[in-house]
Amino acid sequence: MGPPASHGGPSPPNPQLTQQFLSSVLSQRGPSALPYAEDTKWLIRQHLVSLTTAYASLEPKTATFIHNDGRSVNLLQADGTVPMSFQGVTYNIPVVIWLMESYPRHPPCVYVNPTRDMIIKRPHPHVNPSGLVSIPYLQNWVYPSSNLVELARNLSALFGRDPPLYSQRRPSSNPNPNPNPPNPNPNSSSSSYGLTPNGHSSNFPRPAMPPRAYPPSPYGGGGSGSFSRVQTEDPTEVYKRNAINKLVEMVHGDISGLRKAREAEMEGMFSAQATLRMREDQLSKGLKEMQDEKEGLEQQLQMVLMNSDILEGWLRENEGKARNLERLDVDDAIECVDSLSKQMLECTASDLAIEDAVYSLDKAAQEGAIPFDQYLRNVRLLSREQFFHRATAAKVRAAQMEAQVSNMAVRIAQYVS
Questions:
Q1: pLDDT digit string (tens) for 108-149?
Q2: Are residues 123 and 50 in the same domain?
Q3: Which strands make up the sheet holding 59-66, listed edge to edge?
Q4: Cβ–Cβ contacts within 10 Å for residue 404, how many?
Q5: Does the structure show a pLDDT above 80 at 189?
Q6: Region Disordered: start and end of each range (predicted)?
Q7: Which of 122, 119, 131 lies closest to 205, judged by CA?
Q8: Section 224-251 average pLDDT
Q9: Are residues 326 and 255 located together in one domain of the fold?
Q10: Rounded distance between C-alpha atoms, residue 268 and residue 345, angstroms
Q11: Are strands 59-66 and 109-112 parallel, antiparallel or unpaired?
Q12: What is the number of alpha carbons within 13 Å of residue 303 lying toward its C-beta?
């Protein structure tokens, strides 16, 4: 992808104006609104404010970014320099940090932005020929903990181990036989990053590679010294740099494996949590059923206790009568406790007596002891009388049932209370 040059207005000169600038551009609506999610604009503003506070050389701007498919979109960027320390000397590396549409849920896009007198080192483990930066911090970006300040610190640390830029040596008409003229003041080059990197080399003239006798030196911008002397690669330094890069790769691989293991462990815990919740629901349902069953058993127990009290009372009343059973009159064996019971007893006895009389009349009619017309007349009279006794018994039985239900309700209320 190749973003064009920035066209945003002048950057705010101090933190207060930076905050005002960011609040203004992030609060715009309509066609000129920036394509960031509303729930992340406050976090984007905080990230940029923290970045400009920690690195005053990085200024927030708005610029048009062109995607590979030709789409252009207005985005925020942090344009400036990132300090690095190389062999005891501090240099400033010009960079542009683009905040893409999905930021901060996804990492920003970082480019090294060389000036006209600089060239990108080839090959470089973290910077491709177009200037696009790829470091482990960007690859392992985690929302919402990752931020721009930590990104700038990682860029400084990695660039200090292996600088991505070299000074371009231009031919000079000076007849001075010294083939290695001193570089310009490093501070003067740190403010000349006017071109934005892209994937085509036609945007700025490709610098000529330095001769073999004069190996390129790191870009010296904004530091306390410059590489103006001829340098040669020290095998010890090369071995040390390669060992450090190898260790970084190994640590990155270990961290990635550890992260995958922790993610798998978290997935297992989430699955176990779902299973435990399902079992909790089952246990709650079973507990409710057991409580309902307990309440039903308690009600049955109250009924049994009530009936037991009634039977025990009857036994206490009739225990003395059992000892005098020989002298007990048959008619006194059963005593009616109330008028309804006495009336029920009389109706039942009359019904059974009439039943016996009708049976005897049937036997007499079969044997010819009485005339048939007399048999019919007596059976009709007895049946009429039996009907009235049975109707009375049915009414008495209904009244007894109603009284029994009322009595049971009173007893249950006493036991419950």
A1: 999 998 888 888 888 888 999 889 999 999 999 998 889 999
A2: yes
A3: 59-66, 72-86, 89-99, 109-112
A4: 10
A5: no
A6: 162-234
A7: 119
A8: 68
A9: yes
A10: 77
A11: unpaired
A12: 8
Question: Would you state the structure tokens that stand for residue 359, as one six-digit string?
Answer: 């049976």
* Residues pairing with 110 in the sheet: 97
Cβ-contact 124, 130 below 8 angstroms? no
pLDDT for position 322: 60
Tokens standing for residue 404: 């029994």
Mean pLDDT, residues 231-258: 82
Task: List alpha helices for 208-338, DSSP H.
Answer: 235-323
Instruction: Mark whether 258 and 352 lie in a shared domain.
Output: no
Give me the residues paired with residue 80 across strands. Answer: 95
Supply 302's token pair.
């109250």
298 and 345 fall within a common domain: no
Q: Are residues 74 and 44 in the same domain?
A: yes
Strands 118-120 vs 109-112: parallel, antiparallel or unpaired: unpaired
Q: How many domains does the chain have?
A: 3
Chain position carrying tokens 């920036």: 34
Same domain, 227 and 238: no
Which residues have C-beta within 8 Å of that of residue 299, sequence separation ≥ 6? 412
Lowest mean pLDDT of 109-123, 161-175, 367-381, name the range: 161-175
What φ, ψ does residue 366 adopt, rounded to 5°? -65, -35
Answer yes or no: are the C-beta atoms of 337 and 407 closer than 8 Å.
no
Residues 217 and 294 in one domain: no
Let me know if residue 44 belongs to a domain. Answer: yes
Contact assessment for residue 76 and residue 62, using Cβ atoms and an 8 Å cutoff: yes
How large is the greatest C-alpha to C-alpha distance in the chain, in angstroms?
Answer: 172
Q: Mark which of 182, 199, 232 sits at the end of a domain.
A: 232
**CA–CA separation, 186 and 115 (whole Å):** 12
**Distance in angstroms (rounded) separating the CA atoms of residues 30 and 22:** 17
- Residue 2 within any structural domain of the chain: no
H or E stretch including 349? Answer: helix 339-367
Do 50 and 106 share a domain, yes or no?
Answer: yes
Q: Is 414 in a helix, a strand, or coil?
A: helix
pTM of the model: 0.41
Average pLDDT, the chain: 78
Residue 98 belongs to a domain: yes
Answer yes or no: is 375 within a domain: yes
Please count the residues of the chain.
Answer: 417
